[in-house]
Amino acid sequence: MQHPKVVIIGAGSLFFGRQALWQMVHSDVLNVGTLAYVDNDPVNLGRMATLAQKVIDHTGVKLNLESSTDAREVLPEADFVIFSFADRSAKFRGIDCKISAKYGVRMCSGDTIGPGGIFRVLREFPNIVKYCRDIEDICPDAWVINYINPTAANGLGIRIFAPNLKSFALCDGLHMPRVKRMYAKRAGIIKEDDEWNDDVAAKFDFLIAGPNHFTWLLKAEYAGEDRIPVIAEALRESAATETDGGDTGSKAKWNSSITYALYKAMGKVPTCVGHTKEYVRFWQGLGVTPEPVEPLSIWDTATRYERHSDMWRQVDAFNNGTTPIEQFMAELGPDHATDIIESMWGKLGKQFFVNTSNNGTLINMPDDAFVEVLSDVSMDGISPRPIGEAPVGLRGLWQQVLDTHELSVRAAMSGDRDLLFQAFICDPMVSSLADSEKIIEELLELERDALPDYWFE
Question: How far is CA 169 from CA 76, 115, 340, 361, in A?
Fold first, then answer.
């Protein structure tokens, strides 16, 4: 067996499968190992495996390729297992958002918080645990990396229900060093990417923390000078000329305006506002006084379907020779998970934002709070970098989200409708007990074929 062996369960996840392949062939640490694709759709698995073999042949690297519709066939000797699967996600997110909007809960993404986030946990987490049991049986020393939203809920759930596995959870939003370089530009430290270097990076001291998709910039200092006001001013200027986002989708609408409004309210800058605006109640359309920004637009299933279709057309064009493989090499870039794997396996000592147990990094939050923080990541373990105190106010909002996540995964594993109801009541978007009961009953019925049978026994 060629090592490191990286198994991707959910190879048809186009947002990560292609980038992981790009990184596996480009990295001298990884391209001597094994890439194993798993997907329960044999057609999509074949498309991705064909692309992978073409890229391997084009580059001439020694990367070994495996693929299977059965994870147990490729898990032996795995060093890393990445979860990136979803059961008809676009379809069910559309259902979640439509039914929730009927009862006054507006979601622009519907995959992390609110009724949509809770029901995605119900659909995905039992399958995550099944794969964890396979890993415990076949390759118990492998690192498990969760990429499935809500990643904080699912990552926390793995810690609860598969505590002996080595695991952490990821999102691509805070990919280092990209995210630090981006804030350096917003802070006026650099103007172009090519100005970024180790000296600039060392002088730029910044802190980001919070549950995934609800993280905030807590500190941004360059050579001892606070640059958060500069970042905020750039947001204010952007907000002054902002449109409604046009056809860029509900997650992109009014983001600069909302980011600046939250900065003025909290004194900190949200770092993932396309999701964060769904975690707070201010743009739900419940107020009496008109807001400068309209209520959240509902997540658009059709737009996501078209985006998926475009990605598959791109894959097929590479496979049939319409588009040269050279273009794949030029257009794609590194994936967060395989970037981390490269550093872990190659002992490169890089730091990354990962979702993991707090363990004292935020000293006024519980050790088991599952937060996204900058961490030292190695084959020996995950060590979050010290931050200090979580800001009062944000701390309470964060804990409410984390409690919702924990109740969701416990409900998902038990089929306990009382726990499910409690998850709804804890959720920051829900404002009616009676409506919660209605949403739960409608979504259970509409998503029956994606949920375990114990919900209906």
Answer: 22, 21, 12, 17
